[in-house]
Amino acid sequence: MAKAETLVSPIMKKYGVPKWVSPFIFSYIKGDPINAIKRGLSFIDVKRRKGEVTKKNVYLPNGYKFDTGSIGAVLNIFLYTENRISEMTDEWLSRPVGHDYLWYKNYFSALLQKDKKHAKAVKNLMDGLGVKPAEAKKELEALFDFIQSIDLWPERLVASEVILKRSYSTFGMVFYRVFYAASPEFMRSFVKVFRSDDESWEVGEIDRIINEGVVGRERMLSLARELLKRFYLAINSYSSIAKKERIEREVKLIMEVAMAHPLQFLNEHGFEIDVEREVRDIEKSAK
Q1: What average pLDDT does this structure show over 19-24?
Q2: pLDDT digits (tens, 9 = 90+) for 26-78
């Protein structure tokens, strides 16, 4: 593995990949370092090459071909997520928030409007590709049923803005980076779904929740584990797409990094989590 580290470390530095992602990348390339690195880089290091979108297929600059139906299935995940976040937020705001949580009402009210715009951006991309909306898998529905059932406002903020947001945006940004060259005109709008403005209140409130123990550390960790397990089950329920397109290993890597992201955030706020082990344990518990 030392050889793999020698090969990969400069590449990670070039693309600004944080060190905490290393264990998952090394696991991906283990056993076939050269081919794995070449294959992984071919999806993102496109230089000036362009892709192409046809009625039946999406061609990437590296020559890789995806069935448009497979891309449509992934976009349906994003569309359902944005619509469900809006629905969930609207339901939360329909009840009295109480004087202590007026700032939460203001924040989530603004978030609701953004999510509606995000859903429109995803729908525009789907329309451009000729993709029709479809029903979500029951595992994806269960993920949002769980989040929507959370009653306390601080826990809602942790669940939606710390855990889900970081996992979801990891998937979204990879999707954007891979398919930008094939459809830049739509992707420029699509990426706004995953690039949020600096929310000073959100950042400060999350710091306060952690530092003051508003949500206890054990509760926060158990919430993260349960939510990430459901996230894993939701994404894994679409594994037939990865198998069809022969990208199972790449999707597994992205999924592990997506689960690791919020756990690393907690570490940066004073938790002492073995992120790689935690991700592996979550995968085992989901299976």
Answers
A1: 90
A2: 888 886 777 777 777 777 776 777 888 888 888 888 888 999 999 999 999 99
Spatial distance between the Cα atoms of 58 and 74, rounded to a whole number of angstroms: 13
- pLDDT tens track for 82-127: 999 999 999 999 998 888 899 999 999 998 998 898 899 899 889 8
Best CA proximity match to 157, nearest among 104, 110, 115: 104
